From TrEMBL:
This is Uncharacterized protein. Keywords: Glycoprotein, Leucine-rich repeat, Repeat, Signal. Gene3D superfamilies: Ribonuclease Inhibitor. The keyword Glycoprotein applies. It comes from Amphimedon queenslandica.
Amino acid sequence: MMIKPAISLILFSLVIGLYASSDGNSSSFNTTIDCDSCPASCNCDIEGSIHCTEKGLTAIPPGLIHCERPDVIILNVSFNLIQNISVDDFNGLPNLERLFLYDNLIDDIEEYAFSDLTSLELLSLDGNRLTTLKPNVFMGLIGLKSLLLYSNSISSLPVGVFDDLISLIVLALHNNRLTSLNPQLFANLPNLQRLYLYGNGIRDLSDSPFQHLSKLTLLYFSSNNIIELTNASLAGLNGLRTLVLRTNQIRTLSHDVFIHTPSLTSLYLDSNRIRRISSDVFSPLTRLQRLVLSNNLIEVVEDRAFSELRSIIFLYLRTNRLQSITEKTFHGLFNMQQLIIYDNLITSIPGNAFRQTVNLRR
């Protein structure tokens, strides 16, 4: 009758013994992390790099969280099942320069999660499930140059979320669910050069959301829902060289819409709903070399509408509703080499319509 109590006592003693050994230095209870070896589920064959891709991970490996690894400059934890990033996940990687977290299931990132990564230059968070970002999520990333947030489900961004990113050059926010841009959202990105916002649902640019981006050279803004471009839409973009606005709903271009973009060399306005090109709309664009107006509803191009485009080389007007051109339609285009104008409703062309296009390739 005393056998069962005796067995229970023995089992209790074994459990206590196991816990006691785990608190000491015994290796019989395997909770010790060897910080001198490669973290479990990772590959460290390339010096300075740790790759933990496609391992079914649901969290950052403990061998990264609990170890100091000052030699690591690249960490790739992409193609996993990670949902959350916490403030302690990367505190042992003081010299990390590139962090890849793309194609996980991340829907939440704690504030200050990357604050210890003062050497980080590239952060890839694309292909996750983020719907918004917390205000201080990028705090401390003063050396970050590229931030990739595309292909998430981001519908809103708090003002100030990018304020610490004073070195940022590339910001990729395309293929999200943004419908508006606060005019102060990009206020503290003095070095930003390339901004990708295509594939969102942004409807309005009247609040001058780019007014602080004087160093921006590329703005990729296709596949949104912009109806009208006004003087305020492109304010502040004095250094912009390439502007891509294709596949929006643009119907009208105000006469002074491009007054803030004198450095443009390439302008893509194809696949919109523009009906008329006025004589002065492109006047400020004396450096423009490529103008794409294909796949619109253009019925009228006013005389001398392109006359100030003295640097233009390529002009695309195909697939519109033009019925006629005059001897002044292409006035002043001395440097134009290629004109694409097929698939219109033009029935006749004046004999001297191309008199000034002396460099046109035939």
